[in-house]
Amino acid sequence: MTYIFGHRGSAGTHPENTMISFQETERAGADGIELDVQLTKDGEVIIIHDEKVDRTTDGKGYINNLLLKDIKKLNAGAKFQNGQFKAEIPTLNEFFEWFKGTNLFVNIEFKTKSISNYELEEKTVAMVKKNKLEERVIFSSFNHYSLVYCYRLAPEIETAPLYAEGLFMPWIYAQSIRAKGIHPNYRVIPDELITLSQNHGIKVRPYTVNQDEDIKRFLNCNTHAIITDFPKKAKELKTV
Ligand code: G3P
């Protein structure tokens, strides 16, 4: 059985990393949500992908230079499909308030640079624990130091390194950083490495799997999960 995770919610059909996108993912019958977290200037954990607000909102500037109260005035739907959706940038707290009432998993990706003071990781782990969501959270990042830091803080929360180039025996690497999964770019994970990784107890969740033929390939080789911009379509392909 392959789980379906909506990438930034349902980013192919709704503005990425917004509550309407997350709610659509649940409506689509997906199993999980992937989202990105960063810190505002005043230290709030918010959900947004880029370092700047420019690409997805009607504002400008680096997130770490903006206060939450100003970020909240922006429209995170402004650049998606002629602005037909209006949405705020959510905080992780707001997300959890809704998420607690669902049966979904969430994959929280830390958008951290290689040098970090780990404030984002510490605040996120504390929120997960406060809400008792440890069993439904997976941490991922391209910065694997973030993941090891989280593992040391909360070994009960699953971690999974993101990577975009082929790795030799990825399950060995995952085990070496105490990760329970790997999140490779879908182009760099052949079927035999999926099978071998999973036979060694490492769950494989490739990103971002959007084309029908790619979705079918991962379903056919029993990949643990796929991360897709089109959770509704993926769910439909799964039942064919
Ligand atoms: O987590 C999967 C995917 O989101 C990783 O790439 O660039 O979208 O953060 P990116």
Strand element count:
9
Provide the succession of SSEs. Answer: EHEEHHEHEHEHEHEHEH
Number of helices: 9
Molecular shape: globular
Number of domains: 1
CATH architecture: Alpha-Beta Barrel
Distance between the termini: 13 Å
Cofactors, ions, other ligands: SN-glycerol-3-phosphate
Average pLDDT works out at 97
Q: Which structural class matches the secondary elements? A: alpha/beta
Protein name: Glycerophosphoryl diester phosphodiesterase
InterPro entries: GP_PDE_dom, PLC-like_Pdiesterase_TIM-brl
Domain GP-PDE: 2-238
Organism: Caldibacillus thermoamylovorans
Account of the 3D structure:
There is one protein chain. It contains nine helices and nine strands. 45% of the residues are buried. Helix 8 crosses helix 9. The chain is globular. The model has no long low-confidence stretch (mean pLDDT 97). With 240 residues, the protein is α/β, with parallel strands linked by helices. It has one domain: TIM Barrel, CATH 3.20.20.190. 32% of the residues lie in helices and 18% in strands. It has helices at residues 19-27, 68-71, 92-99, 119-130, 144-153, 170-176, 191-199, 212-220, 231-239; strands spanning 3-7, 32-39, 45-47, 105-110, 137-141, 158-163, 181-184, 203-204, 225-228. Strands 1, 2, 3, 4, 5, 6, 7, 8 and 9 form a nine-stranded mixed β-sheet that branches. The structure holds SN-glycerol-3-phosphate. SN-glycerol-3-phosphate binds at residues 7, 34, 36, 109, 140, 162, 183, 207-208, 227.
